[in-house]
Specification:
Blueprint (H helix, E strand, L loop, with lengths): L16 H10 L1 H8 L9 H14 L1 H7 E3 L8 H12 L5 H12 L7 H14 L1 H8 L3 E3 L1 H16 L3 H4 L13 H7 L10 E13 L2 E13 L4 E10 L5 H7 L2 H18 L9 E10 L6 E6 L1 H6 L2 H18 L6 H5 L9
Parallel strand pairs: 1-2, 5-6
Antiparallel strand pairs: 3-4, 4-5, 6-7
Length: 348
């Protein structure tokens, strides 16, 4: 059985599709630094919004544990935010002392008495009380606007004739005595108990390519054991809903989908004892507009795209090179540089 004891994003011993992207665009030295934790992942508001939408749609229980709607008044300045943080982190038992200390850490105290500052701090704490209590929950706070956006996205998906079908939160089993949890564990290893279909969201696969440790986290995977057919579905948030072809090229989404196929084929063969050549495949990208009406578009990815753009070769060449760098410990230059005369070939 796969060892999934290390969470996906914490496991730096395995190569992901994102790692391949870093390797191809920024070189081996950059990838090594990323894997060593010397370069932090980029964090932007659009990425955070995308993660929130993914969790809301695919992991609703985790969403409730992670996010909280903030209805209270938010801090209007950096000083107020600092005051709130100091108050939350205070270990002072006496409320007035805690409030006064927090105020002093956020504002100038020159020429001001404790009574004056305490009065200001008490009023501020009262106005921000609901926000402070929300912050104490330890959850990420979302606004009324975020809540509306999530609700609208969910509604638009439920009304979309293809997206609603692809993202259904159900799976069918033949034996009515088998619980959903048992079906998740069995995952095809049924010992005579025939599971017909399984739909998984956020499906983690640790796999190998030619001895190189790899990892994939699929948004959604539908396995149809009866008909030997699987469907890979990937959610993408975008500001280019009607020019999505640009995003496909810019972010190498075809490479990502094929990398997922490699992971699922490995999983079928090595974990479920299936011959992946006997299985048929479908691939879909569900694009979600995040800047206007939250429109939904579903795009089918056809197998011939991978051939036309040489996706399989690009991935395998990259993985072979990454394996070489890992085994030799030489990361400053390309493999071609080290094994040749120092002259490298353009990939036109």
């Amino acid at each position: 059985m796969m060892d999934l004891s290390v969470p996906y994003y914490e496991d730096m011993s395995r190569i992901s599709n994102s790692n391949i992207g870093w390797f191809l665009k920024k070189g081996p030295a950059y990838l090594r630094a990323k894997l060593d934790g010397k370069i932090e992942d980029e964090s932007t508001s659009s990425l955070e919004r995308g993660s929130m939408i993914h969790m809301y749609l695919l992991q609703p229980e985790e969403f409730v544990d992670t996010y909280k709607l903030c209805k209270g008044t938010r801090p209007k300045s950096a000083n107020q935010e600092k005051f709130v943080q100091a108050l939350i982190n205070s270990t002072e038992i006496e409320p007035n002392k805690a409030i006064l200390s927090a105020y002093k850490s956020a504002y100038s105290t020159i020429g001001r008495s404790d009574d004056e500052m305490l009065s200001k701090a008490t009023q501020m704490a009262s106005e921000l009380n609901e926000y402070i209590e929300d912050m104490k929950s330890g959850k990420k706070l979302i606004s009324e606007y975020d809540s509306y956006m999530l609700s609208k996205v969910s509604s638009n998906i439920s009304q979309h004739k293809m997206a609603s079908k692809l993202l259904r939160h159900t799976y069918t089993i033949y034996d009515a005595k088998t619980s959903d949890d048992e079906a998740k564990v069995l995952l095809g290893k049924t010992d005579g108990l025939p599971i017909a279909e399984v739909l998984y969201h956020e499906f983690h696969i640790n796999w190998e390519y030619n001895g190189l440790k790899c990892k994939s986290l699929l948004d959604s995977l539908h396995l149809d054991f009866k008909n030997k057919h699987y469907t890979i579905m990937d959610l993408k948030t975008t500001a280019k809903i009607y020019h999505f072809e640009d995003s496909i090229k810019e972010y190498d989404y075809l490479r990502q989908i094929y990398y997922y196929q490699m992971a699922v084929d490995w999983y079928l063969e090595n974990e479920l004892g299936e011959n992946p050549k006997d299985w048929e495949r479908d691939y879909y990208i569900i694009a979600i507009d995040t800047v206007d009406k939250y429109d939904i578009r579903v795009f089918k990815i056809y197998g011939h795209y991978f051939e036309e753009y040489g996706i399989k070769d690009k991935i395998e060449f990259a993985l072979d090179d990454i394996k070489w760098h890992s085994e030799t410990g030489q990361w400053e230059h390309s493999r071609q540089y080290y094994t040749g005369n120092g002259c490298e070939t353009l990939d036109l």
